[in-house]
Amino acid sequence: MQVSTKSRYAIRAMIELALHYEQGPLQLREIARRQALSEKYLEQIMHPLRTKGLVYSQKGSRGGYFLARPPAEITVYDIVTTMEGTITPVPCVDNPQVCDRLDICVTRTVWSKLKDAVTSELSSHTLLQLAQEEKEYREAGGRDICGK
């Protein structure tokens, strides 16, 4: 199982927004610059985040993006499932009717436990935690990707 580039970049963009929570909107080009991402690609990433209500956008010269909820209320799970859809490793975990071997399948339990473990891990990390770690890293002499 691999997490897509879209999910990884979405998490990075959301951390950037969490670092600026309650400071007004952050322009897309600034998020892209700070994270060394293509602005055009980031535009595609922000669309589903906006559609699912994780971010708001504000138009105009002072416009940009901002989190729709406090960073403590948004998890990595929220972001990944917004970008990827379900994280179910095989279809029968969520929809047993698709499997004609359900009554004799010994691996369905493995796939169910995998889904539960991934869900639990991704749900245990909030944007607030990740933003705090990022801030500490930067303050300790680390730098963001742009050297700022």
Number of strands: 2
The CATH fourth-level homologous superfamily: Winged helix-like DNA-binding domain superfamily/Winged helix DNA-binding domain
Strand order of the largest sheet: 1-2
Count the DSSP helices: 7
CATH class: Mainly Alpha
**Fraction in beta strands:** 5-15%
Please summarize the sheet with the most strands. 2 strands, antiparallel
Order of helices and strands: HHHEEHHHH
Ends apart, CA distance between termini: 34 Å
**Total discrete domains:** 1
CATH topology: Arc Repressor Mutant, subunit A
Kindly name the structural category: mainly alpha
Radius of gyration: 18 Å
Mean pLDDT: 91
Poorly predicted runs are none
Classify the helix fraction into a percent range. 40-55%
User: What is the name of the CATH architecture?
Assistant: Orthogonal Bundle
Shape: elongated
